[in-house]
Write a structure and sequence with these properties.
Length: about 475
């Protein structure tokens, strides 16, 4: 493997590789036969300080495919553990590697990770590879989330490898390059706690504090403050998912970040008709990760994270448990408050009234009964247009009257309410049938459908959305399933 000089804009540091060696495995990428660039995020490249033109050259593509690494790269696979559907397992990057942390022109430290880059010591019998469809899917949905204003990892590029991967059928292999504030997961702490070296656990926690919550580092009990910060970030994140109708699909503790960004887009999808029981993932038979369960699961995951932190919270275990419990008790209150604040915005409520929660709940219940489209209902209300599925509902008319009186009771003008709503309720989300359409065309070598979709998704709050991106799927197309075998 050749190491590339730095004129391409790479400016890598490797702070993670300076952690104790049990946290990672040094590994070289596994070269692929015939890498071809399929999609590149030039805007993201620019914010990273990378030269988008150079990335499209043969040398640039070789980096994105893992055939070469930039000069200062120390490629590693990260070790972690996780509760997968409730069961604890030792995991690690089985098909990803971190080539380093790009120090951006704005002074940010951003992980650069290749996903689908070949086997690692953590592959557990897997091939370490990824197929084109799922990597493009992660690209599309993560970039849509970014445009919607939700904390998320981002996607820099997808390259095809020129090699097949074998799932149920033979599929084209691909590598996604993604960026994230870090890939520190709840599971990284569970791994460390499981290995049992308390010194390493505190080194990891100090590292995470320095990277994500440096303002708590001088607190009297900085690990307690750290736990509170992570709880707050996650409460805010899951509330945002609920507001927008996003279903992560695989909220295992290894897929939850310390930074509070959304990562690991597998069987995720956006809800069309409102129903809290909505599940898309084919393997989530019991609906553990259904839309309506996401806040509870976040709480459960935080409890597992706090267990891993116990040895750092207090030297007396009982005291440590009490501290952790106090933070967990705060989570539900905090989540509820953030959720309700966001729902108020969705309805243009500019102040607080006691009855707001029941007003919101009543609307949701009418939507559920009438199978109303989640996104389009709020969007229609934002423009004072009729809601298709609710126009004949007496219950809805009654609710509408209550809502109007509530709006009239507040001080702000109707216009300012509407403005807030229009900026909060998106018109364009990555609807499952549109994502599938783009992936299907890409599988046949036509990337124009993908490009148009990405363009539409980059402007979710536009006043003039194209109808094809706002129309819900036909009823026959609604029993959408997503698959984990990616
Ligand atoms: P995920 O469900 O995508 O979060 O993955 C769970 C674990 O399985 C992670 O440790 C992944 O690295 C690993 N994994 C997923 N797919 C593969 C694969 N094709 N080869 C090796 N490891 C994999
Ligand atoms: Mg994962």
């Amino acid at each position: 493997m050749t190491k590339l000089p730095e004129e391409k804009g790479w400016n890598l540091d490797n702070s993670y590789a300076r952690l104790p060696e049990s946290f990672f495995s040094l590994i070289n990428p596994n070269p692929v036969e015939d890498p071809k660039l399929v999609v590149l995020n030039s805007k993201l490249a620019a914010t990273l300080g990378l030269n988008a033109e150079e990335l499209q050259s043969k040398e640039g593509i070789n980096v994105l495919a893992g055939n070469d690494v930039p000069e200062d790269s120390i490629p590693i696979a990260q070790a972690y553990a996780g509760h997968q559907f409730g069961n604890f397992t030792m995991l690690g990057d089985g098909r990803a590697l971190l080539i380093g942390e790009q120090m951006t022109p704005d002074g940010e430290r951003v992980d650069i990770q290749l996903k689908g880059s070949g086997p690692t010591p953590f592959s557990r019998g897997g091939d370490g590879r990824a197929a084109l469809g799922p990597m493009l899917r992660e690209y599309i949905i993560s970039e849509a989330m970014y445009a919607l204003g939700i904390p998320t990892s981002r996607s820099l590029s997808v390259v095809t490898t020129g090699e097949p991967v074998y799932r149920e059928t033979e599929l084209p292999g691909a590598i996604l390059t993604r960026t994230a504030a870090s890939h520190l997961r709840f599971g990284t702490f569970q791994y460390s706690a499981g290995v049992g070296k308390v010194d390493d656990l505190s080194t990891l926690a100090d590292y995470a504090i320095e990277r994500h919550y440096p303002h708590v580092k001088n607190d009297e009990n900085r690990y307690f403050s750290f736990l509170k910060e992570v709880m707050r970030s996650q409460a805010s994140l899951v509330a945002k998912w609920q507001h927008i109708g996003f279903i992560h699909g695989v909220m295992n503790t290894d897929n939850m970040t310390i930074s509070g960004e959304t990562i690991d887009y597998g069987p995720c999808a956006f809800m069309d008709t409102y129903d809290p029981k909505t599940v898309f993932s084919s393997i989530d038979v019991q609906g553990r990760y259904a839309y309506g369960n996401q806040p509870y699961i976040t709480g459960w995951n935080l409890a597992r994270f706090s267990e891993a932190l116990l040895p750092l919270l207090h030297k007396d275990e009982e005291e440590a448990v009490k501290l952790a419990q106090a933070v967990m008790a705060d989570f539900s209150k905090r989540y509820k408050r953030i959720w309700l604040d966001g729902m108020r915005k969705k309805l243009g409520l500019l102040n607080e009234e006691k009855e707001d929660e029941s007003l919101v709940e009543k609307l949701l219940s009418v939507m559920q009964k009438n199978k109303a489209d989640y996104t389009n209902t709020f969007r229609a209300l934002s423009f004072d247009q009729p809601v298709d599925e609710l126009s004949c509902s007496a219950e809805f008319s009654e609710w509408y009257g209550q809502w109007q009186s509530r709006l009239n009771r507040q001080e702000g003008s109707n216009e300012s309410s509407r403005k807030v709503m229009q900026q909060t309720n998106p018109a364009v989300i990555p609807r499952n049938h549109k994502v599938e359409e783009a992936l299907e065309a890409a599988g046949e070598g036509d990337f124009s459908v993908l490009e148009r979709l990405l363009d539409a998704l980059s402007k979710p709050y536009t006043k003039k959305p194209e109808k094809e991106y706002t129309t819900p799927p036909e009823p026959s197309n609604r029993s959408y399933r997503t698959f984990c075998g990616t």
